[in-house]
């Protein structure tokens, strides 16, 4: 089994979920290759090699400073042609999904997105992915002999901490090819410093907060816990907060260690996006709210009393 990992970077720093891909590839055994594209890829490649990235293929060029799915597809496609991997792994983030759908179409290989498990059974790779909001899991295999393109949900595998590897500087002709799009600048999304899909802790607010002016106390709790602020679709549609914060079927699918839902009733569209969280805590004044059916811990009461009390307690315990 030869696995090619596509590691991604932002602002010259590795995206942490790329290190999770290495851990997933280790579980398969066999040869591991990791591709990293950046304006200056060598330092990032060295870090990947020290984390067990195997043969790390570093492609450096000023045009690769920002993510460009058209250009990235051509460059990685050339690496795939050269190294002929059995499986190509990426992360199921916004950029990862955009890139891998293009790659699979360009190469003509099968694709499984948002996978929650990969395993080798005999000599065949089996990919497990959810359907119907996680109510059904299916196992997929590749039967056509072409590379199997798989995006893994963040936080399913731990980050690879160590291992051996080597850096190989690659010169790829596709870097200089003409593209229909040029990325000149990237502006960060509003809504906080912690990325929702990479956060270990998420504190989300719903319509039970009664108005945008009350979201500050939820954001403060998230900050004290070193987590990210999330939101239900209802309050995004009501323009209380930005779409970048939305968790759910039409927002982001998240998998944190701790998910705190405040004033969220628990509509299926929201549950789809967070039900795989490690521990779910719900705060709602309605004891019959659907969110309690999936919560590990539930607090029935007034969020305007409970949230400040939790924030105060965590500040005392964490010294925040």
What descriptors fit this protein?
320 residues, alpha/beta, Rossmann fold, 2 domains, seven-stranded parallel β-sheet, five-stranded parallel β-sheet, 27% helix
The overall strand count is: 17
Radius of gyration: 21 Å
Could you spell the SSE succession in H and E letters? EEEHEHEHEHEEEEEEEHEHEHEEH
Instruction: Please give the count of helices.
Output: 8
- The order of strands across the largest sheet is 7-11-6-1-4-5-12
Q: Structural class per helix/strand content?
A: alpha/beta
Which regions contain 5 or more consecutive residues with pLDDT less than 50? none
Task: State the CATH architecture of the largest domain.
Answer: 3-Layer(aba) Sandwich
**How would the global form be characterised?**
globular
Most strands sheet: 7 strands, parallel
How much of the sequence lies in strands comes to: 25-35%
Instruction: Give the helix level as a range of percent.
Output: 25-40%
Mean pLDDT: 92
Please characterize this protein's 3D structure.
A hairpin with a 2-residue loop joins strand 8 and strand 9. The mean pLDDT is about 90. The chain has eight helices and 17 strands. The strands form four sheets. A seven-stranded parallel beta sheet has the order 7-11-6-1-4-5-12, with helices on both faces. With about 325 residues, it is α/β, with parallel strands linked by helices.
